[in-house]
Fold:
Amino acid sequence: MDIVNQFILLAAGLLLLSILASALSARVGMPLLLVFLSIGMLIGDEGLGGIVFADIRTAYLVGSVALAVILFDGGLRTDVRNFRVGLRPALSLATLGVLLTALITGLFAAWVLGLSWLEGLLIGAIVGSTDAAAVFSLLHSRGLELKQRVGATLEIESGSNDPMAVFLTIVLVEALLAGQTRLGWDVVWVFVVQMGLGAVFGLAGGRLLSLVINRMQLSPGLYPLVALSGGVTIFASASVLGGSGFLAAYLAGLVVANRPLQAGQNILRFHDGMAWLAQITMFLVLGLFANPTALLGSALPALLIAAVLMLVARPLAVWLSLLPFRFPRQEQLFISWVGLRGAVPIVLALFPLMAGLDNAWIFFNVAFFVVLVSLVLQGWTVTPAARWLKLEVPTGSGVIQRVELDVPGEFDRELVGYRLDGESPAAKATRLPLLPEGVRYAAVLRDHQPLDTCGLAELQAGDYVYLLAKHDDLPALDGLFSAAPDIERDAATRYFGEFIINGDARLEDLAQVYGFVLPEEVHGHTVTELFATRFGRRQVVGDRIVLGTVELVVRETEGAEVSRAGLKLSH
Amino acid sequence: MHITHLLTADRIACQQDLTSKKRVLEALAGLLAASIPSLAEVDIFDSLLNRERLGSTGLGTGVAIPHGRMTGIDAPVGAIITLKNGVDYDAVDHQPVDLLFALVVPEASTDEHLQILAALARMFSDRKLCENLRASQDAEQLLRALDGWELHRATA
Structure:
């Protein structure tokens, strides 16, 4: 009995400690995952805690379940609208990119460690995929809003490239187990089965799950649990039948979140917490499992492999995979740098251990070390790198205080609440602000008293305003009901320019007003057409074109077209 | 670049009671035409309106800078109108506009034109100044507020 209670105390205490430590890490800008991993190592048998944990199967179980939850949550958070700009490049990175990264890194690893080339490739495959948890948490961290094309590509890539790395790892482990020295063509068949089954289970399972959630009448607390257990079930059934469970979990999340969903907000918030819990548990356990002294033993070769991975393999793979998509150079550089490695390599490094391969511990230690280096170096520098490469877009929604509530029975609308800031446009206006089409006032409270919204003449600072709106209306509502501080507005002006130009404005007219000579090839074009010719279908907010004495910066898009551009006078 | 050099008291109208973007642009064209004998009011109005068709010149926070380039003048000329109640101006932040600076520049001056516009945009990002301009009851008061601001800028 006592031992059980001690275990509970330990586990709960660790969880609490990790969460508290995360508050500290936000202040130092240190990657959170690194904190959890370090705590795990610190309490391990060689650290202060002296806890002996060497059970490969438990570590693998925890890692797999946690990854399934994280990928499902990642899918829930991926906006289908990002597909227009990010899907194809991301898929190219997730397949070709992983293969190239694994090849280059693997051949180097074989050489530097003196292993056979299949063993080297196995190391390459293990560290081949970028980490969904690390990338998601970085991209969604406060204060970093990337250009959509970059953010979308990285996000979809990290969600969809694990299956490729898993597949390569499994194939190589089996080949080594069977004593093969080269790979046969049956590998292709395994690939088709894994990805095919994963995709079918993910897409079909996701549809089924959203149907179940929307049809069932449950106590509100159960909807998130239905989603979670459904997601893990889809993961497991795909895996049991030989498909890629990770792909299935990610796709299922994607399908569920991008269809009208009962209790959607509730489900999202719950999964946010669950993804955190999964990350913390997984990294604690993996940190606990690792053996710091042994890690140090492989430090030098691992450091070299990490360097080749980050500075040669990844950039080369990114460049080749993105070749057909004409990404601007800064964006390619950034995508190369955000090849964050995380839990997946460590979990994959458990495969050879379970299979009992000869050099399994070398693989594990090298992979673990590579992840550490990547988290420290890349994780720590992502935000400065984004600023340096000018890929950050000013948002104005960085510090918005609003509540979002589900409307029962109404899946694509929600209730949004603001406490009116005295500096917001709505509070300063002398009449009731004009709302976007389809948005209605649901309630206004002043001094704890509900007001009649019909006869309401104006809003005041301190009012609580609740509106019935679609999710797409939120940016416009944020602009009305919360205050963009002067700093943010100035940043937006610096980024987008002083004035706004409509998409249908003719370039000749612009040239006339601002007195510049229009290049021959764009005569007769509108602003929309100008951007379409230059950037194709993947144009995003923040793309810019210098035109004579002024610069045009995409400010809003509608579908794949530029609807409004900023005009920058001084550039 | 001194903004006040673009203005004279007779091209400033405070606390006007105008009800639409069109009326405000007409009033601004009127102010400008009165002191530029070589230009017709309707041509100035057309020039300003044509620029608005490309995209609203509303900067947000109730400020707009309608502008145009015209033959028949040899120096940039500005005019200011403030309104009692804001008008719908299709501005960036969808909010009504009640403080407007109109600018017309000669056909030849392209770089100067851009520099003045950029300077105006910077000037109107000063919230305190905008409040002072809006509160001004007449041209003298408004010019004093502008002078004070430029002096403060020169010494700061």
Remarks:
- The radius of gyration of chain A is 26 Å.
- Chain A has a mean pLDDT of 86.
- The CA atoms of residues 179 and 460 of chain A lie 76 Å apart.
- Chain A touches chain B at residues 425, 429-430, 433-434, 476, 479-480, 486, 489-490, 493, 498-502, 505, 509-510, 512-516, 549-550, 564, 567, 569-570 (CB under 8 Å).
